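sorry for the late reply, my laptop died twice this morning and i had to redo everyting from scratch. anyway the thing you sent over, i finally got around to it. pasting the sequence first so we're on the same page, its 103 residues, then the predicted structure underneath. double check i copied it right bc i was rushing
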Amino acid sequence: MFNKTLVIILKEMILSSRLNFFKTNTMSKQEIEFRDPVVERVVNKFVSRSDIGFAKYGVTLDKDPSEMFAWLNHLQEELMDAVLYLQKAKEVYTENLQDEENI
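ok and here's the structure:
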């Protein structure tokens, strides 16, 4: 009897947590008309990044319980990576220009 009651309680808890998950993680749909294909590609990348983040962390940024310091730290790390990519791109661009001048 005790085991049966425990199983029922656990099933109710799981169902309740699933319902709460779907209540808090529902997706909305919006149709957007783009005049600029560059803007469209950037928006698509934002949606893709959001999907990747949700798959990885199981929570949307809106529902992320992290503290402000953690967000700021993560942003700093991302910006540091961006500077590295920028530097590499500038170096490759400069090398390509020099190669073209030598042809």
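Residues 1-25+41-63 form one domain.
thats about all i looked at so far, will dig more tmrw
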